[in-house]
Amino acid sequence: MHIFHVRYRNTQGTLMRILSAASRRGIDLPYVQAEPVEHAHKVTLLMDVNPKQVGQLCRDWRAIVDVVDVRPGAPIKELWDHAHVGMPHPPESVVAAEISQAATA
Fold first, then answer.
1. Tell me, what's the pLDDT at 75?
2. Mean pLDDT score of the chain, rounded to an integer?
3. Is 45 exposed, middle or buried (CB count within 10 Å of its CB: 0-12, 13-18, 19+)?
């Protein structure tokens, strides 16, 4: 797992362009958090990518006009192992629906 911090100006479509750079490569985004930081915004992404994809994503993000800064982090296995703990759980109705679908199949 790699963690990325991307700072950007919050103009229309900027966050969507950042996220679509990963999604068009078929990369899962298990953790995404966007928040305001000073006069810009920051999105933190956690993705399972190889070194070639890290370079491609950074290049694509830096090419976006409103991206101010891109900081890729080192591979972090431990963060992913503990990331599930703080993630919200699905609503009880979703879990119940999945169980009933599995029972009828």
1. 72
2. 83
3. buried
